[in-house]
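Narrative progress, year one. The postdoctoral researcher (J.K.) led the effort to move from monomer predictions toward full complexes, under supervision of the PI. The following entry was the first complex the group processed end to end, covering 1069 residues in total.
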Amino acid sequence: MLKRFFDNHQLIFLGPVNAYITFWTLFPLLYMLIISLTNWKIPNPARFIWFGNYLEALTDPLFWYSVRITLTFAFAVSILEIGLGFGVALLLNRPSAVATLVRALLIVPMVLTPVVTSMMWRYLYNPSFGPLNYVLSLVGLGPYEWYSRAETVWPSLMLIDLWQWTPFPALLILSGLHSLPEDIFESAQVDGANALQRFIFLTVPLLRPLLLAAFLLRFLDALKIFDTVFVLTRGGPGTMTEVLSFHIYRFGIGEYFRVGYGASMSVLVLLLSAGLSWLFVNLLRQEELTHA
Amino acid sequence: MPRFWRKVLAAALVNLGLALVLLWTLFPVFWLFLTSIKSEADAFVYPPKLVFTPTFDAYYKVFSDETGSNWPRFWLNSTSVALLSTLIALLIGVPAAYGLTRFQFKNSRATLFSILSVRFMPPIVVVIPLLFMMRTLKLVDNILGLSFIHAVFALPFIIWIMLGFFASVPRDLADAALVDGTSELGALFRVVLPVVRPGLIAAALFAMLLSWNEFPIALVLTGEAAKTIPVAATTLIAERTIHWDRVAATGMIAIIPTVLFALLIQRHLIRGLAAGIVK
Amino acid sequence: MPCAINNRRQFYLFLTALLLLIPILPACAAATPETVTVKETVVVEKEVVVEKEVVVTATPAAAAPVMEDRDYYYDPALAGEEISVVLYEGPGTQHLLPYVPQFEEETGIKVNLTQIAEASLIEKEVLDFTSQAGAYDIVQTTQDGAGVAYFASSGWIEDLTPYLEKTPGKFHYEDFSESVQAATSWPYGGVPKIPEGRPYSMMQELTTRIFIYRDDLFNDPTEKEAFQAKYGRELTVPKTTDELLEVAEFFTRPDESLYGISFEGARDLHIYAVWVHFLWAFDGQEWDPTTYEVTLDSPEAIAATDYILQLSKFTPPGHSTASLFEAVTAFAQGQSAMSIIWGPTFGMASGPDTQVSGKAGFGEIPGAKRYLVAGVGMAINKFSQSQAKKDAAWSFISFIESPTIQTKMQADGNAGPRKSVYGLKEIAEARPAENFSTRLASEKGHPWAMAGGVGTQFVNVVFTNLNRAIAGEVTAEQAMQDADAEATQLFQEAGLIE
């Protein structure tokens, strides 16, 4: 009998992870689902209003605005980071002491405590005393109210994300470049293809699964943007930068303590993330199959 | 232009590009450091002072401040939680990743998907139920409780990285061990793991970094006893603190261990990252 | 790999190991953090040496006072109790810390103190209340967004009446002004407090917004001349809202990096704290105190909001996201000629570390008729684990609030609420601006947003819409109408209006 137990591979190998994750996520998920069906607002008692919250969220223009800007932001930064990252990877793809140094230090922005990153940029962006405006003033460019004006707030927030996360696809692509088989390139060169042609028709297609994975990873992560908005704009100016996680925070805990409503929006976001993850898993599998 | 000069020009441009990348990457951190060693008066002057007498006054103030005197404890907490959560995640995740690669489970895709989707959920979303749950289990404001939760978030990463490494290990390796009579688990521990050591290290390091910097869950689940560095740093960067030099010093204190740690392990991290994607 | 890289790695390894080891060593030795005696020497320009014999250290008095001598609640049976206190991270807490050991000595009650950043404090406390865990015996109540109204109306904190009754007469509860008493009581019906109002918290820090200005600029002959020429009257420190607008316009010179006035514009409660003074200056009110009908769309409220928008034109760049420190720093760096700040931040705005040290004057906010009662206080958690703990908690609270300790804390620089204490000549002269703000709050104070459980949310509704107006998204009128609609719905859901 014991032997049967140990022979059941699924139980032994997957059992612990399934049990662990189920234990820690099942209750919160169920709890969240149930609460989302109530109108619980601390300190009032809760009453079941079934899909009232969902209806409210789905008909709230601010909620849709929030979804839209979050998706747009995530998409834009991911694409930019892949592009920039590719450039940086190409620069680093040469054996030199400088390249090694840069490669080692490139990791720094990614590992900083998020709150510190946000605070740091808050000072850098300060319109009156920040060094960014100072440096720009030396070349005659105006002082900018970076994250205080509607015109410049999105670029400002995106800049921070770019600064922090471009190293991720850069390093990933660099490893990818290193693992490319040399012979294909050599034979292409023999066949008369120049550097640019080799790049467009060989390098990029070969790296496609890597690029796709990097994009999807960054995209899903960027959807969670919270710290920078919390520290710099608090959803402002007005409601311009009220991204999804901040919106949920504001209603669910921070300002209104409408736990029920917050839970319903969280469920919706969860569905969104789950859908995108499923897409991710499938796309990745597909790439693996075709790539091999 | 003759070949030689073309190469020199190309090299110069590349180096210029690299220099720019370096400047761009490090300027903010460097500037934060500069601010932290300025005196209070110098800290926020316009135009910014580039020449000044450096002082570690700000650091001293942060350390001698009421909460500041607890910094050693915060360091200890952050380190303990990082180590413990990584250990748990490794113990559970490594066999899972191995199992998924080695055996053709019927619903492996479903399992994989559910594990991954944990990672892509904003923590804000689960904070309240987690708090109630931990209260019932009496695990609030303690290292063990926080480690359990951090392990949940580390698992997808560990599994994903190890999947890549395990997939590149030939089946015969484990098969050979089985012939000798060891169990599957035994084969994993005795034969396969040594081969994928770099992946293990990368996965572990990544998980530790993740835990060290985690903020929303730590904020809600810790009080004073198990407070971690990000929570402490945020506490000190509160609204009323207009002492920019102190805020900068706090920031530096929070990030110096992480930066040094990252510099140390960066090679392993890159290999680990790539292995999970590229076969 | 070449040797050089290996060495570097080993170096980092060593450093990291060192860094990781260092904290472990002292952490093993240290048990709980000791209360450090921090006597902050805030050198304010006009500080006068305090003549009164005030002992400012943490060492206990030579002889423990006899029970009858005490001016706070004390019960020897409580010795050995342990209480948990959660307070915000800031000056109010810093000032009481040195007296905790003295309390523990005199009463035998052990105090475990946790400090939390103000931004997260309310969330944490509410979570503790709703789970009824009683993790904290004393909770911090903040006056912004009505912590007292919120907690008391939700039934989370103790009615202090029975506790006050068993406290020695020397405590002198009447030493707290009517405004303060009304602000810390529930139910609320205005100042002075209504007969049904019961005290729920004791304030440890009392403050409000004051007006500060660059004395040197106002006394500068060139400026006076220019002003006379442009506006046809003498340049004086503004006393009315119209004068303020004029002077702000006069001093706004972007090319010289000088702006008329700096104050918060970011989407948080600080903008509310500024705006509400002008609301009251224009004779508006947030809602009708008897019917709870929201009056944000009244002409007065709209006029006040419009005024804020006009004033915002004369602020330094970045106004729509300017939070407290941007606003104060602007004045400290000489970028703004005037500001409206919290009293206790006067030192940061014009102390010796700033560019404007010695050049700042202070006074009443131009046109203001009432002032916010702001500050923090302490209350007893209803879900505390035993009555003994609650009594011990009250012992601590009354100790900190006692005349003896309050006098000492005031000498340290605390902005305490006792009339007899802030009225002392030496205290008033030591920190004139902070003292002035305490006095204003005490004598002309008016609590804010005392709307049961939804006070905070009311404030949120208002400041969100104010920020939208400042960011140019909507007009003042639209902002107030939106705020009125949202707030009315809020009150309806809370059962305050039909």
